[in-house]
């Protein structure tokens, strides 16, 4: 599916144009991606559909205007991405079930809705995969967890992988690991933003203006992340490089290590996982 630097995908229906649906759409609209047969997008409001209507290769439908919008969008689509709110999923699946093409691949982007739920509401002629992208998809830097369903093939997995690679990197895991993955990469951007907020407060305490503090801290996090990617080194190696023996950084790191951050992050991700299980149980 993927050539040197271009991706070719078959016709796609994207049901739900919320923030994650739109992020995925932005990847599909990249110049290096060709969607043969076009993209049909559905959402509730006519205003949102109108915003998308002028986009080349995209047909936008509003369910407020057209009760058949979802059924029309999936007719003839090879891949159907379900990006509506989790509570709306079972009803949507019942609505589109009879309009899906045999052999279509249905991809869930709805947090917490299991493959079993999807497969129970859809005909046995379609395969299901479950995904968990994160918000940096908006800038093409997502980490997406991807899990096979009981009826999906290796070819289906490869095709959907290439779809999500248009907005970042993809990690394939069994579905039993997807909730755990959501506590790391799914919620992870919030942990990073929290650390940025905390260091910004510390900078203001040291007498910097809020503007200066933001410049210092945001730039440092962005630069450190870029360095990690570009250097090919581990975070540990890079930390040791910055930490001169008996220097100032060493003193700061000692205080942070005294707080046992690994235990704190384990507790935090455990709490998120417990909540994911509560949500799944209804």
Automatic annotation (TrEMBL):
It is found in: Cytoplasm. Residues 12-112 form the Pyrroline-5-carboxylate reductase catalytic N-terminal domain. Pfam families: F420_oxidored (PF03807), P5CR_dimer (PF14748). NADP(+) binds at residues 15-20, 83-86. Keywords: Amino-acid biosynthesis, Cytoplasm, NADP, Oxidoreductase, Proline biosynthesis. It comes from the Bacteria. InterPro entries: 6-PGluconate_DH-like_C_sf (IPR008927), NAD(P)-bd_dom_sf (IPR036291), P5C_Rdtase_cat_N (IPR028939), P5CR-like_CS (IPR053790), P5CR_dimer (IPR029036), Pyrroline-COOH_reductase (IPR000304). Pathway: Amino-acid biosynthesis; L-proline biosynthesis; L-proline from L-glutamate 5-semialdehyde: step 1/1. Belongs to the pyrroline-5-carboxylate reductase family. This is Pyrroline-5-carboxylate reductase. It comes from Herbiconiux ginsengi. The lineage of its organism: Bacteria, Bacillati, Actinomycetota, Actinomycetes, Micrococcales.
């Amino acid at each position: 599916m993927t050539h040197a630097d271009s991706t070719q995908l078959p016709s796609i229906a994207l049901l739900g144009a919320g923030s994650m649906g739109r992020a995925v759409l932005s990847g599909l609209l990249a110049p290096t991606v060709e969607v043969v047969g076009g993209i049909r997008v559905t959402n509730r409001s006519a205003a949102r559909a109108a915003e998308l209507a002028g986009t080349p290769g995209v047909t936008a439908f509003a369910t407020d205007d057209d009760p058949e919008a979802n059924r029309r969008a999936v007719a003839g689509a090879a891949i159907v991405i379900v990006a509506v709110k989790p509570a709306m999923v079972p009803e949507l699946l019942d609505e589109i079930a009879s309009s899906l093409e045999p052999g279509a691949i249905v991809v869930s982007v709805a947090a917490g809705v299991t493959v079993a739920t999807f497969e129970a509401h859809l005909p046995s002629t379609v395969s299901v995969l479950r995904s968990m992208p994160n918000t940096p998809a908006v800038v093409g830097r997502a980490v997406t967890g991807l899990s096979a369903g009981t009826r999906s093939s290796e070819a289906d997995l490869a095709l959907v992988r290439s779809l999500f690679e248009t907005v970042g990197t993809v990690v394939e895991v069994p579905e039993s690991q997807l909730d755990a993955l959501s506590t790391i990469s799914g919620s992870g951007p919030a942990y990073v933003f929290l650390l940025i907020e905390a260091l910004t407060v510390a900078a203001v305490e040291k007498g910097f203006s809020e503007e200066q503090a933001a410049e210092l801290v945001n730039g440092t996090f962005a630069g450190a992340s870029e360095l990690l990617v570009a250097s090919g080194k581990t975070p540990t190696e890079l930390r040791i490089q910055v930490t001169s023996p008996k220097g100032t950084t060493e003193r700061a790191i000692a205080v942070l290590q005294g707080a046992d951050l690994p235990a704190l992050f384990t507790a935090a991700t455990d709490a998120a996982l417990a909540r994911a299980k509560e949500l799944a149980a209804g």
